[in-house]
């Protein structure tokens, strides 16, 4: 078993509630991360609740980030982004992996925020209202409420939009609110090829765990 650990706190955004509804902070984190993610992805592009938690296979890598309190597993066919590649996102992400053929990316963004008790249905409704104004030709595919293996609730929000070069991108976003942080795990690929990595994306998403 290969274990990767990262001790520093890169890719973390701080925030406070300050009397403002939690979903507004969550929405801001999603939109900021989405802008960086889409730009970075195009650099690499070449052409009721259910239970989560996935048992690791021999062909998978376990990644742990003690400093930010999360872990996940991913297939060895995906390659971890190095510091130089992460720099394309200007510090927005603390961890990322990429798939070559077809081109795909998964990034983890961390927002320091007390989001315990955040209403994920309210976050979803806010995304429904806001995303069409933020992304060209936005189309929602669906959503799903999850219970992570670590016990927390999470939301998967799935959608497509038009990026630069008239490339249609599909993003699948996992939102995980906790007592001290909100985690965003986002998968990107061209919409026409997303189904080819969907099984991997699903396993990676459902393996995500917080301390």
Summarize the structure in words:
25% of the residues lie in helices and 38% in strands. By secondary structure, the protein is of the alpha+beta class. The protein has a single domain (3-210), classed as Protein Transport Mog1p, Chain A. Strands 2, 3, 6, 7, 8, 9, 10, 11 and 12 form a nine-stranded mixed β-sheet that branches. Residues 1-10, 13-20 and 39-55 have low confidence and may be disordered.
Radius of gyration: 16 Å
List how many beta strands DSSP finds.
Answer: 13
CATH hierarchy class name? Alpha Beta
Percentage of β-strand residues: 35-45%
What's the CATH superfamily, by name?
Answer: Mog1/PsbP, alpha/beta/alpha sandwich
SSE layout:
Layout: E1 3-5, E2 12-14, H1 22-44, E3 50-51, E4 60-65, E5 70-75, E6 79-80, H2 83-86, E7 95-99, E8 104-112, H3 120-134, E9 136-147, E10 153-162, E11 168-177, E12 181-190, H4 198-207, E13 209-210
Parallel strand pairs: 1-4, 2-8, 3-9
Antiparallel strand pairs: 4-5, 5-13, 6-7, 7-8, 8-12, 9-10, 10-11, 11-12
What would a concise description of this structure say?
The chain has one domain: Mog1/PsbP, alpha/beta/alpha sandwich (Protein Transport Mog1p, Chain A), CATH 3.40.1000.10. It contains 4 helices and 13 strands. The chain has helices at 22-44, 83-86, 120-134, 198-207, and strands at 3-5, 12-14, 50-51, 60-65, 70-75, 79-80, 95-99, 104-112, 136-147, 153-162, 168-177, 181-190, 209-210.
Question: Notable features of this structure?
Answer:
single chain; four-stranded mixed sheet; disordered N terminus; alpha+beta; 25% helix; Protein Transport Mog1p, Chain A; 38% strand; 4 helices; nine-stranded mixed sheet; 211 residues
């Amino acid at each position: 078993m290969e274990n990767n650990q990262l001790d520093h706190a890169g890719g973390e955004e701080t925030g406070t509630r300050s009397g403002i509804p939690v979903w507004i902070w969550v929405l801001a984190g999603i939109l900021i991360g989405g802008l960086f993610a889409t730009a970075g992805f195009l650099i690499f592009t070449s052409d009721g609740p259910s239970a989560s938690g996935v048992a690791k296979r021999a062909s998978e890598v376990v990644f742990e980030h003690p400093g930010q309190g999360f872990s996940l597993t991913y297939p060895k066919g995906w390659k971890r982004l190095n510091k130089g590649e992460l720099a394309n996102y200007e510090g927005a992400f603390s961890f990322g992996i990429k798939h070559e053929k077809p081109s795909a990316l998964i990034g983890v963004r961390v927002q320091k925020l007390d989001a315990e008790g955040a209403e994920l249905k309210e976050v979803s409704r806010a995304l429904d209202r806001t995303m069409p104004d933020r992304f060209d030709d936005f189309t929602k595919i669906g959503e799903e409420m999850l219970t992570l293996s670590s016990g927390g609730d999470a939301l998967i929000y799935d959608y497509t939009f038009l990026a630069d070069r008239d490339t249609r991108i599909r993003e699948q976003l996992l939102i995980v609110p906790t007592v001290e942080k909100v985690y965003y795990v986002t998968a990107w690929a061209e919409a026409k090829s997303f189904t080819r990595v969907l099984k991997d994306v699903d396993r990676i998403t459902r393996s995500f765990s917080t301390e």
